[in-house]
Amino acid sequence: MSSIDHQLKYQQLKHYFGHDGFRALQEEAIDTILSQRDLLMILPTGGGKSLCYQLPALLLEGITIVISPLLALMHDQVQALQTAGIKAAMLSSMQNESEAKEIYRQLYNDELKLLYVSPERLNTSSFLQTINEMQISFFVIDEAHCVSEWGHEFRDDYRRLGTLKENFPNIPIAAFTATATQKVASDILTNLRLHNPHLIKGTIFRDNLFITATARQKNGHNQLIAFLNKHSNDAGIIYTLSRKNTETLATFLQEKGFSAKPYHAGLSTQEKNTTFQGFIHDTIQIVVATIAFGMGIDKSNIRFVVHMQLPKSIEGYYQEIGRAGRDGLESETLLLYSAQDSFQRERMADEMPEGPYKNNVLHKLKQMRDFAYAQSCRHQTIAAYFGDTIDTCQKKCDSCLAPEIEKEDITELAQKYLSTIYRLNQRFGKSYVTDVLTGQKNEKIVKFEHDKLSVYGIGKDETKTKWHLISDYLLEINALSRGDYKELLLTPSGIEILKGNQLVMINPQRLITTKSARKSKQTDTIELSFEDQHFETLRELRRDIALEKGIAPYMVFSDKTLKEMAHTLPTNKEEMLAVHGMGEVKYSRFGEAFLKLTQSFQ
Ligand code: ADP
Question: Which of 158, 427, 504, 565 could form a Cys-Cys staple with 147, CB 3.0–4.6 A?
């Protein structure tokens, strides 16, 4: 590329996108596309993939066709591009005939630089014929992992994209995805028939995400509230397993004064849209959702993601937490798990026919469970899962921050628990075992004469809750298993513990009960610093503008831009243009209103 092109690249970057420089790997991807070579880029969510094809689309002659799996996602992207003064459009089933006609008119008159389409649309012969007559610069395949049956979001229409290379052998393809195991990556390369592709793989490490995974106490509500109190004005997603759970949890949070709404596939389209739009437009703070929510969601200021149960795979989990902090600002994720979750998921898998698919599901679940229970660096474990080697994060996860915890020896307690199970002939579940152990006198115990057993009441110095936590832990470390009727069974490892041949060590924090950890909702008024107050005022202006224009607030400016504005308080146009995310186009649309405010803050 000539030096003029090089200059132009930077000029356009600032002019249209407001950025002063490229992030890691962006320039390499852009140069690959500009040199007409096929590309597969694997970069975590928030890494800045869109720019990698949007900028070359502007620099190259002709039109760029972007294939994307979700209408909502396309819609947001196109709106954001148009807001930045770029000629982009989408063709979808959402448009009526006259709207579609208008887009075809623009297409024939070479008025567009980017056209977004769904894979279904692309695969139709009429559409293929239309674009056959155009000058196409390159094809973009977004969320490319959808072509792989090994991925977690396989789409049949994506697999058919393999024919693109047959129909357009000379047009380069650039494929992008956030999550790819080696298997998925090689599926993408073969299914799309990429020719001599350049492979760019970014590190999986998201250094602005703080990851915590901790044992859930009861239904986890108290832990959740303590977490949310640290994020009082922040936007976030809470994932939960069932539709019903999303509703009860959202109601619970509303009663506690949070702005929360449920979201699941069983709601009407209108309800779903209202919640989706409210969340995008910052009028709903929290969405409590099943995994039906969030794919491709393009909201850059999600500050937290919570999982109330163990997800089914690390891939899915990583994708979901990846929705937090796309703007690069500090964000937090919390996973609450219990032994119960993996049993429940295993039981769901039990229904599947035996075979490789079922084995794959169970294997992924086991990896997820190991991740939750592990005490090693969370980021490192995730990276290893995706075939990446990184140093420990040092300070971005609970494991790395935990002081070297002295483990407590609970072998004796474990032996009491296990011998009670043994004396009960391994025929009862957790509650009954605990009742006998703590010396309860209920009808059933008296009837079975279990109050006459030597183990009756030997555990009465500890609370029932503590015994339940010990029971869960013994299941976790595989000293116990469960039968078909939830009865507790001793495993070979449990027998070794009973015989005194094996110690049981635990992080003592795992045995702290909810009561001692409970924290009331903070009622103190928090003193905002001047900078925070300025940020809030700028946010209000952003919300007003977004409402007036009918676009999402982050399309006006990102949180990062507003934070920098609140910090530097520009006094004139020049200083305003120096702010991250402020290009000429954005300045001419919205800049002055913000400048008036920052001037007034002086
Ligand atoms: P991805 O598609 O990889 O998830 P996006 O393309 O949505 O990521 O980009 C995430 C965020 O990063 C956006 O808010 C975008 O404005 C910002 N961003 C992208 N490239 C740059 C850059 N070169 N400099 C600063 N911010 C950038």
Answer: 158
Q: What value does the mean pLDDT take over residues 64-87?
A: 91
Edge-to-edge order in the sheet of strand 286-289:
209-215, 331-337, 302-307, 235-239, 286-289, 260-263
Is residue 76 predicted with pLDDT exceeding 90?
no
- Three-state SS for 148-216 is CCCCCCCCHHHHHHHHHHHHCCCCCEEEEECCCCHHHHHHHHHHCCCCCCEEEECCCCCCCEEEEEEEC
Ligand 1: centre distance to CA 16 (Å): 13
Q: What pLDDT, on the 0 to 100 scale, is given for residue 191?
A: 94
State the pairing for strand pair 480-482/488-490.
antiparallel
What's residue 366's pLDDT? 87
Mean pLDDT of 150-163: 82
Atom of ligand 1 nearest to the CA of 23: 23
3 state SS for 324-390: CCCCCCCEEEEEEECHHHHHHHHHHHHCCCCCHHHHHHHHHHHHHHHHHHCCCCHHHHHHHHCCCCC
Q: Does the global pTM surpass 0.70? A: no
Query: 279-304 burial, b for 16+ CB within 10 Å, e for fewer?
Result: bbbbebbbbbbbbebbbbbbbbbbbb
Pocket test residue of 19, 142, 143, 209 for ligand 1, highest count of atoms within 8 A of CB: 19
For residue 440, how far is its CA from the centre of ligand 1 (angstroms)?
60
Mean pLDDT, residues 167-181 taken together = 91
DSSP state of 509: G
**Region of residue 580 (phi > 0: left; psi between -120 and 50: alpha; otherwise: beta):** beta
Q: Is 580 helix (H, G, I), strand (E, B) or coil?
A: coil
What is the residue type of 238?
A: I
Q: Decide if 48 contacts 13 (C-beta within 8 A).
A: no
Q: What is the pLDDT, as a whole number, of residue 295?
A: 67
CB within 6 Å of ligand 1 — which residues? 19, 22-23, 26, 43, 45-51, 300, 326-327, 558
Q: What is the pLDDT of residue 531?
A: 78
> In this predicted structure, which of 36-45, 377-386, 391-400, 503-512 has the lowest mean pLDDT?
503-512
Task: Quote the CA–CA distance of 205 and 225 in Å, as a whole number.
Answer: 28
| Phi, psi (deg, nearest 5) at residue 593 | -60, -40
Average pLDDT, the chain: 88
User: By alpha-carbon position, which residue is closest to atom 12 of ligand 1?
Assistant: 48
pLDDT digits (tens, 9 = 90+) for 283-327: 999 999 998 787 667 788 999 999 999 999 998 899 899 999 988
* Separation between Cα atoms, residue 493 and residue 507, nearest integer Å: 19
Residue 195 scores a pLDDT above 50: yes
Residue 55: name the closest of 6, 95, 104 by CA.
Answer: 6
Secondary structure E strands in 43-181? 63-67, 88-91, 114-117, 136-141, 173-177
The token pair at 361 is: 């599901």
pLDDT at 521 over 50: no
